[in-house]
Amino acid sequence: MASVAKQFLRPSTVNNLTKLVRNFSVTGQNNYKVAVLGASGGIGQPMSLLLKQTPAIKQLALYDIAHTPGVAADLSHIDTAAQVSGHIGAEQLGDCLTGSDVVVIPAGVPRKPGMTRDDLFNTNASIVADLSKACAKYCPTAFICIISNPVNSTVPICCEIYKKSGVSDTSKIFGVTTLDVVRSNAFIAEAKGFDVSKVNVPVIGGHAGITIIPVISQCSPSCSFEQPALEAITERIQDAGTEVVKAKAGAGSATLSMAYAGARFAASALDALSGKDNVVECAFIQSSITAATYFSTPLLLGPNGVKKNFGLGNLSDYEKKLVDACVPELQKSIKKGEEFAANFH
Ligand SMILES: NC(=O)c1ccc[n+]([C@@H]2O[C@H](COP(=O)([O-])OP(=O)(O)OC[C@H]3O[C@@H](n4cnc5c(N)ncnc54)[C@H](O)[C@@H]3O)[C@@H](O)[C@H]2O)c1
Ligand SMILES: O=C(O)C[C@H](O)C(=O)O
Question: Name one GO molecular function term (predicted).
Answer without folding.
Answer: L-malate dehydrogenase (NAD+) activity
